[in-house]
Amino acid sequence: MIELTPRAAERINEVVAEGRGKGLRFGLTDGGCSGYTYLLDFEEGPDDDDLVFELDGARVFVHPMHLPFLQGSVIRYLEGDFQTGFQIDNPNAQRVCGCGESFDVAST
Q: If we measure between CA atoms, which residue out of 93, 95, 91, 101 comes closest to residue 40?
């Protein structure tokens, strides 16, 4: 399961209302100094095999291959003087790079 905070759901709904997609793609790409980086992008809809998570009408699309690495993650939206944007709290992240942009997971 992927969770959204109420503020993250509100922000997703704001972006969708601006006509910039129908939901948020949440996934992974290879890269960064620790192995993976998060993919966050607004898309027109889920792919046929996507899992769709929803809170207060905000939709998040996740490819099933990414779910083992993202399971239990909480997507937050922060607004402040030094950081504005989505923040991911991922219980599967083991090593996080110094800049916080990439992570690795424990091998099984």
A: 101
Q: Is 70 helix (H, G, I), strand (E, B) or coil?
A: helix
pLDDT at 108: 46
User: What are 21's two structure tokens?
Assistant: 């997609």
- The string of pLDDT tens digits covering residues 68-90 is 999 999 999 999 888 889 999 98
Residues of the chain predicted below pLDDT 50? 108
DSSP state of 13: H
Domains plus CATH for the chain? 3-105 (2.60.300.12)
Closest CA to 24 of 10, 50, 43, 5: 43
| Cβ–Cβ < 8 Å for 40, 11 | no
Block residue for tokens 């996740």: 62
